[in-house]
Design brief:
Structural class: mainly beta
CATH architecture: Beta Barrel
CATH class: Mainly Beta
Shape: globular
Low-confidence stretches: 1-17
Number of domains: 1
Oligomer: single chain
CATH superfamily: Lipid/polyisoprenoid-binding, YceI-like
Strand content: over 45%
Distance between the termini: 38 Å
Mean pLDDT: 91
Radius of gyration: 19 Å
Amino acid sequence: MNKIIALLLAAGLSAQAYAADSYTIDPRHTFPVFEVNHLGFSTQRGRFNRVSGRITLDAAAAKGSVEVTIDAASIDMGLDEWDKHMRSEDFFHVEKYPAMTFRSYGMEFRDGKPVAAEGVLTLLGVAKPVRLAIANFHCGIHPLNRKELCGADVSARIRRSDFGMTKYLPAVGDEIRILIPVEAYKD
């Protein structure tokens, strides 16, 4: 009898494990962008051109996870010299810290759709909790390749000083606004 109960429990747990759908981030349509105040005169923007990651979603159970890795050396400010400076020890110190990561430990759902992800952002070797807001979440069939795709607009605000990036404070702003268009194909 105990063996039958154990088998039923194992089968139930296996079904739950497979209830979540898994997605791989499309690096051609996922570009983390950041904004920072520059000397009080303007808002400067940069982006990262190489990103990878996985997302799992179980809308029925209101659960999911996010794991994202950003190649810090892929920073793109629009000018080669500026990119080189941003890669230096003054900012992203890519030689020592080649990647930034975000790993969620919880997601918030509303009406069957994710609206936020709580997790840990690791930047310059410092790990801090960060909440990502998720807007415009939509899944469907891509009209060209006919594959299932989900997309959203993700945003957050962080203080760069919390991660040890203090060069040129306060002239270059401390608050960083992060905007990430994300698209991910179902595995």
